[in-house]
Amino acid sequence: MVEKMDLLLVGGHVLDPYTGRDGRYDIGIKGGRVAGLYPGGGILPAAAEVIDIDGDYLSPGWIDLHVHVADGAVIGIDADTVGVRQGVTTIVDAGSTGSRTFPGFVEHVISKAKTRVLAWLNVSRAGLFDGLSELADLSEIDEEETLRLIAENASIRGIKVRMSSSVVKGTDVEGLRRAKTIAAKAEVPVFVHIGNQPPKLTDVLDLLGAGDVVTHIFHGKPGGCLNEREEILPQLQAALRRGVYIDLGHGTESCSFHRMRQAHARGLMVDTISTDLYSRNYEAPVRSLSDTMEKCMALGMTLHEVIAAVTARPAAILRMPQIGSLRAGSVADLTRFAVCDEVREYVDAEDCRICGHQTLDVKGVVREGSVTLL
């Protein structure tokens, strides 16, 4: 006898880069998990609730690897505003909290949000609660407490380190060295912000290994991913061969259409698409993960590539195989959206403007089997 489903999603176009499915399937959900996928038009099990997707796309729930959602930090925004309300089922706060401020983040954000909220724990114990120069004083790194929190909190997926001049002041890459030592002991990756020099990007890259992530890879500031001859840095090529990932991290000042075009022309593409959303860039220039995905499509990425960059790939970076795919048994996180042929103008962090010809109309999410319609 076929088991009755809690929820049946019928008439949708499943797009799942992990499994390779790209076509009409109906999806059965039970106990917050994907219980079955059925080719369109086949015999279906009974269900307590049936929703007609009416030809829209269903992908694994979108994942944003880089947001700031800590209440009380210098920068931040409400988690669900940039999460489920924008079609994103999992967000990762990128270093807003450190070992001193993380317990309050659990109480006030993680435990209350409808969105799954994870964290890259800042290597500095205050995170971004005492200002934006958290690595100017390296005595603020508490190795013992950081290791304890990582061991006790599955929501912490790695360590955030910001490597730009306004953050490190005179400490150069020493904060990253210490973060790498802690990360090695905890067996987690580091998630590294890059920006204005110093430190030099080449020095940062030389310290990174398999599983680590560089965010803001296509910022337009001096000393970026291309050298003076507009070639991919040899140190970046070596890092990619070692298994380092590169992430977009749009942000207020860290996404240059010109740099993206240059990089794409040389075969350099991001592994993951993230927003670096917080209150100051929510209205412009970032807006949402879907808006950032549309910008990447306008610059040449395919629909399949942008969906992979917000599902399977970030799930792999987070080492969370239970999300990021629609395999039987995976957590029932899904994003429903339509692709619309529509001309739209986009702006980057340098006020450069381009036009795209397709938009992503997000219509709702399923989060662990519970439906949120937008």
UniProtKB/TrEMBL annotation:
Residues 57-339 form the Amidohydrolase-related domain. The modification N6-carboxylysine is found at residue 160. InterPro entries: Amidohydro-rel, Deacetylase_Atu3266-like, Metal-dep_hydrolase_composite, Metal_Hydrolase. Keywords: Hydrolase, Metal-binding, Zinc. Zn(2+) 1 binds at residues 66, 68, 160, 276. The record marks 162 as: Transition state stabilizer. This is Dihydroorotase. It comes from Centipeda periodontii DSM 2778.
